[in-house]
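User: We ran a pulldown and think these components assemble together. Before we commit to crystallization trials, I'd like a predicted model of the whole complex to look at. Sequences follow.
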Amino acid sequence: MSNRDDLYWITQFTLIGDNKAFEKLIGKYQSPIRRFFLNLTMGDASLSDDLAQETFMKAFVNIHSFQALSNFSTWLYRIAYNVYYDSVRTRKQFIELNVPEVDLYHQTNNAFSAEKIDFYKALQQLKKEEQTALILHYMEDKTQKEIAKIMNCPQGTVKTYLLKGRTKLIDYLNNEGYDKK
Amino acid sequence: MTKNEKTEEKLKEFFKTYKTEIPDNGFSSKVMHQLPAEKDHSWIVWLIGAAGISFLLYFYIHTGILLNFIENLLVMHFDTLLISITVFPLICGIAILLWEKTKKTFSI
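Assistant: Here's a predicted model for the assembly, 289 residues in total across the polymer chains.
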């Protein structure tokens, strides 16, 4: 399904008010958006679903401002990125807990990600921005230009995040003997 | 294969191993049920527009501007009429194009 389908559904929704068209957009993007949050939250499925829901709600309310200057997918990830960082800021204000401990608790306590502990441990070696850039690039197949739009920063900064993240991650994988697994 | 290419391949493989599709399991319908009801405020635009047009029509008829305008149209040469009709949309079109070109910000 292409960006043309997205534009068709957006037009159907904004002009005719066809909610089914918006439901189709959710159906198409629920998996990548929930996976994006699942990886950023180190496998917290419940939080991921809440954030994904908030993302789609914001998309619903703001869809009239979508100008098709970029793909709908990029626009949606941009909202998701903002939702995630808003939640991080809010949680930082209220919770003063050891994040790796909380993450480990969630990793081992949900069916989605119990087998993904190695992956999350590897991601935890990176800074949040590096994690986001790497996840978007390698997991969600986004280009550097798209990532720059999503993260609202210059392309050069994205390049730096990717480079630093790549180096840290490959060092970690080499130390952990990922090749031999 | 260079070292960089090897690293790239290794990372691609690593992420690919953990890339999973998440089944919907009622997520879409749950979101659809929680969406806020949209309030249609377009009637305000129509109301203001209709009031504005009515006021202008009343003003033009009352002051005789409309009659004067129609009389001028009837005696005007065809080419002058054509230019006066097309010049305004043309200027507007060029202005919009220039504005769109300068507007490169990414908005949500």
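The mean pLDDT of chain A is 84. That may be worth checking against your pulldown data before setting up trials.

User: Thanks, that helps.
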